[in-house]
Write a structure and sequence with these properties.
The complex is a heterodimer of chains A (168) and B (325). Chain A is built from four helices and seven strands; from the N terminus they run H-E-H-E-H-E-H-E-E-E-E. Chain A is globular, with a radius of gyration of 15 Å. Chain A has one domain: Rossmann fold (3-Layer(aba) Sandwich), CATH 3.40.50. With 168 residues, chain A is of the alpha/beta class. In chain A, the strands form two sheets. Chain A has a five-stranded parallel sheet. A two-stranded antiparallel ribbon of chain A has the order 6-7. Chain B has two domains: 141 residues, Aspartate/ornithine carbamoyltransferase (Rossmann fold); 152 residues, Aspartate/ornithine carbamoyltransferase (Rossmann fold, 3-Layer(aba) Sandwich), CATH 3.40.50. Helix content of chain B is 37%, strand content 14%. Classes of the chains: A alpha/beta (168), B alpha/beta (325). At the A-B interface, helix 3 of A face helix 1 and helix 12 of B.
């Protein structure tokens, strides 16, 4: 199978921000990026949309559903939620949407901080292969990849974001 | 029945991951650092609205305390409960052991109740190791064992939480001078601290104690021995006080607790010989006026209560790592 043309991540960030603009309120909407790629995207969206509330970050290690197979791995980071979750409008931001399990874990993690008023989901790229009933509110790009491949967002030294496709 | 041979450290599985926590001695530096790194995000769980994680949901943790300890048992209990485990506390000094049941019979019975983890405190050195060996020899090494203090041998989670505390305040181990002060002879805490500090690359570890409260050959653990407290405290970054363990003493090792305080108690005046930013630690429970002056225990260099808080995060990290390996 020929390698699919990978989208330009920077262009997708800009497109995603434009898609969201009409439905976010800069004074009340808060972003939370999922480590690690989602945090970078959330930073971009936060700047592009001019949001007032500083973006949060989430590490889903504590709520992963494969803990009993894979264990708790080193490098888990702390979630940082610098705003009150109770009744807030929160957009979960991730780079790649795949099985939906990470999003499930991220929502569980968020609820440990309070009861959000509304949660939306913004992703740069949906690669298909959902195993849970999760759908993004905003998605800048869709493509279909076989399970043997992994799509990851990378950040260069100059801060530029790009996608990379790897064989598992 | 098969005996699992790991070919090396009985605490590690064949992938080099932590399976049991029995002692700090012999643990690779990267495993030790991984535990400390893993503990960091657990410290923030206490700040959340919901102070509970699902990692050990559906698992049973048995606190097997063959020796009394309210504090250690409580912190293990809190840690396991914050990981959603079911916790069963057994104070065996007051139960079946008195009826003649052996240690391994007790373990077999609890394993038959679907235990997933044993947290063991025992007056005999090596008891947790014996349990781990027995579980492996009987094909039940999916059950994890955590040593919560055995005899004079080891108290690894205390050693780890002390290292976490040092790292929190001092960042870099490789520039530090650390003094361990007091009843080293009876202290499993001191042994775990010394091993951990050596593994983490602390260049100077001092042991400050009267000759009667030092184990013979303590220098071989890689420490400098001081029999004069003032001399030993000069210029140190960290002071780790030990509890005077009166209950473990046989015979006249000490003239009196007042005499002990005079020579070996940490007073503000003695602490002034350490670096101005030195921190003071104590594993608790403290004997005020015996090994530590109240003015120091309540002073701004003491980090004794943060030690307790970090202890819960470190125990959560240890149990979460074991449970997933």
């Amino acid at each position: 199978m020929p390698a699919p043309q990978l989208p330009d991540a920077e262009a997708l960030c800009a497109a995603l921000a434009e898609a969201m603009r009409a439905r976010v309120d800069p004074a009340v909407t808060a972003l939370v990026g999922i480590h690690t790629g989602g945090v970078w995207v959330a930073e971009r969206l936060h700047a592009a949309l001019g949001l007032k509330i500083p973006p949060g970050s989430i590490d889903v290690s504590f709520h992963r559903d494969d803990y009993h197979q894979r264990g708790l791995h080193a490098g888990n980071k702390s979630s940082q939620i610098p705003f009150d979750v109770e009744a807030a409008h929160i957009v979960i931001v991730d780079d790649v949407l795949y099985t939906g399990r990470t999003i499930r874990a991220a929502m569980n993690e968020l609820f440990d901080y309070g009861r959000p008023g509304r949660i939306d989901l913004a992703v740069l790229c949906d690669r298909g292969g959902r195993e849970l009933p999760v759908a993004p509110t905003w998605c800048a790009h869709s493509l279909s990849l076989p399970a043997s491949q992994m799509l990851a967002l990378e950040r260069a030294d100059d801060g530029r974001l790009s996608f990379r496709l790897m064989e598992k | 029945m098969s005996v699992t041979t790991t070919g090396g450290n009985p605490q590690l599985n064949r992938h080099g991951e932590l399976k049991h926590l029995l002692t700090i001695e012999g643990l690779p530096r990267e495993v030790l650092e991984r535990i400390l790194d893993t503990a960091a995000p657990f410290t923030e769980v206490a700040e959340r609205e919901v102070k509970k994680l699902p990692l050990l949901r559906g698992k049973s943790v048995f606190n097997l305390f063959f020796e009394n300890s309210t504090r250690t048992r409580t912190t293990f209990e809190i840690a396991a409960k914050r990981l959603s485990a079911d916790v069963i506390n057994l104070n065996i000094s007051t139960s079946s052991a008195n009826k003649g049941e052996t240690l391994l019979d007790t373990v077999d019975n609890l394993a038959a109740m679907q235990a997933d983890m044993f947290v063991v405190r025992h007056a005999s050195s090596g008891a947790p190791y014996l349990i781990a060996q027995h579980l492996a020899a009987t094909g039940r090494d999916h059950i994890h064992v955590v040593n919560a203090g055995d005899g004079r041998h080891a108290h690894p989670t205390q050693g780890l939480l002390d290292m976490y505390t040092v790292r929190h305040y001092k960042k870099d181990f490789t520039q530090l001078t650390v003094a361990i002060v007091g009843d080293v002879l009876h202290s499993r805490v001191a042994r775990s601290q010394i091993h951990a500090l050596n593994i983490l690359g602390v260049p100077e570890i001092r042991v400050i104690a009267p000759k009667t409260l030092l184990p013979t050959g303590v220098e071989r653990l890689g420490v400098r021995v001081f029999n004069d407290m003032r001399e030993g405290l000069r210029g140190v970054d960290v002071v780790m006080m030990l509890r005077l363990q009166n209950e473990r003493m046989q015979g006249a090792l000490l003239p009196s607790t007042q005499e002990f305080f005079k020579s070996w108690g940490l007073t503000p005046e003695k602490l002034a010989l350490a670096k101005p930013d030195a921190i003071v630690m104590h594993p608790g429970p403290m004997n005020r006026g015996v090994e530590i002056d109240s003015a120091v225990a309540d002073g701004n260099q003491a980090v004794i209560l943060p030690q307790v808080t970090f202890g819960i995060a470190v125990r959560m990290a240890v149990m979460a790592m074991l449970g997933g390996n």
